[in-house]
Amino acid sequence: MGKRTEIVDVLKAPQIGATITVKGWVRAFRSNRFVALNDGSTFNTVQVVIDPDKIDEETVKRIGFHACIAATGELVESKGSGQAVELMADTIEILGDTDLSEYPLQAKKQSMEFLREKAHFRMRTNTFSAVFRIRHGVAFAINKYFNDKGYYYMHTPIITGSDAEGAGEMFRITTFEPNNAPTAEDGSIDYSQDFFGKATNITVSGQLQAEIGALSLGKVYTFGPTFRAEKSNTSRHLAEFWMIEPEIAFADIYDDMDLAEDFSKYIINYILENYPDDLAFLDKRIQDMEKNMKKELRRPMSLIDTLKFVIDNDFARITYTEAIDILKRSKPYKKGKFEFPVDWGIDLQAEHERWLVEKHFKKPVIVRDYPKDIKAFYMRMNDDEKTVAAMDVLFPGIGEVIGGSQREERLEKLRKRMQEMNVHEDELQWYLDLRRFGGAPHAGFGLGFERIILFITGMANIRDVIPFPRTPGNAEF
Ligand code: 4AD
Ligand code: MG
User: Fold this and answer.
1) Which of 32, 58, 75, 297 is 20 to 30 A from 471, alpha carbon to alpha carbon?
2) Are 399 and 353 within 8 A, CB to CB?
3) Domain residues for 20?
4) What is the spatial distance between Cα 304 and Cα 451, in angstroms, rounded to a whole number?
5) pTM score
6) Quick one: which ligand is closest to 466's CA?
7) Number of domains in the chain
8) Residues with CB under 6 A from ligand 1
C-alpha cells in the first residue's frame, strides 16, 4: 500500500504531476466517473476520476455511498469547474464496502432525529463532521486561552461526596446490588459499608475543588465531564455535558465578568479564524433551511455575521433587579405572552433570557446580583443582604451559556448560608478550612461547553453537538 497523503494536504499544497494515494469515504459518485472523497482531515473533498479503461467494472460497482476506498494516481489540474485539482486513479482499492440495501444513511437530506439514532455513522455527513471538527477547535482554543494567560489545568474528581450546586440532581455511585443493600437501624441504606465508605455521586461541578486550586496556584481551570440527573428534556440540556470552570484568587465579580466576556470572544474568534470552511458550510445550511420560513422565524443575521457581531460589541451588563424591571415593561409581559411569571425573587426562564438578549439588547447580556434564595450557598452575599454576587452570561438563541459568581470568603457568612440552605458542614469541612486558613477573595464561572458550540455552529439541538448524547431515556452507544 502506498503512503497515504491526507486530503487537507493534497488541497493545501497540491503537488501537480506527483503520484499519490488518498484514502477516505465516498461522499458522492457522479456519472460512474467522479468520486468526491473525504477523509475527515478537512471539510473539503478531493475529486478522484475513474477511467473505465484503468479500473475494472467490478471495482467501480463497489464505489458506493460512504464506502471506504484508497485511490492511487497522478494529481492533475482539474479540467472541470468546482475544484482546482483532481486525482486520475490508476488503481482503486476497496477498503470497506457499504451494502446500500442495508446501510441506514442515504445520499440525500435526512432528519436530525434519524441521524441521532445512527450516531455511529452521522459523523460522516457534512453537517456533523463540520460540527465535530469545530468542537475540537473550541476545546483547543479553551486550553490555549488559559495556558497563554498562565492558568493551570486542574483535574477535579468525577466521583465525589458533595453536591456543589445543592440542587440534588445527582447520579449515585454505588457497588450495592439494588435489591440487596445493607440498611442501618432506621431502615435507610448504610453507605458506610459501600465501596467508598460513604454515599457518593458523579460530579455536577468541579468548582468546589477548583477553589482549592485557586487558593494555592492563583489561577486554575477545570475542563471535564459533568453529570446532572435533571429531567429537563429540552434542546439545551444534557444529563452528561462538559464544563469549563476557571477559578481565580484576588478577583471579584467584575473581574469575573470581564474574564467571561474576553474568554467567550476569544473562542468565537478562534473558530472564525481557523475553521472557515466548516463555518461557511454551516452558515449556508441554515440559510437554505430558512429560505421557506416566515421572516420572523429566520435568524436576524447569518451565522457568521452573528459571530462577528458578538466579537465586535460589548456585552450588555445589568443587574437582576434591572432585568425584572425591563421585563415588566416589555410587550410580551403586558400582553401575557410569557409562559412563566416575572417577579422579583423568581428565577429568569429561558424565554425571559432570550427576550432580553434577542429583542431588547440585541446582543449578549450579563445579568448579575441575583436574589440569594435562587442561587447556590457558596455565592458571596452583597451588602443589601438580599442579593448575591452571581452572574449569568446570556447568548442569543440559547439563553444561559455561563454561570458564575464571586465566592463567599467570609467564614461566618458562609456558615450561615450553609445552615439556611441545609448544606451539611461535616461534609464540607475542607471547604470551610479554605476560609479559616489563608483565605482570599476569589471568583469563577462555569461555561457549558456544548452550549457555546451550539451558538458557534448554529445547530438547533444540544444533542447534535456532542457525539453521543445522554438525555432522559437515552444512553445509546
Ligand atoms: O450555572 P451552573 O449550574 O454553574 C455551576 O455549576 C457553577 N459551579 C459554575 C462555577 O461557578 N464554577 O452551570 C454552568 C453552565 C451553565 O451556564 C450552562 O451553560 C451549563 O453549565 N449547563 C448545562 N449544559 C448542558 N446541559 C445541562 N444540563 C447543563 N446545566 C448547566
Ligand atoms: Mg446557572
Assistant:
1) 297
2) yes
3) 7-108
4) 17
5) 0.96
6) 1
7) 2
8) 164-165, 205, 207, 228, 230, 237-238, 241, 243, 245, 400-405, 444-446, 448, 450-451
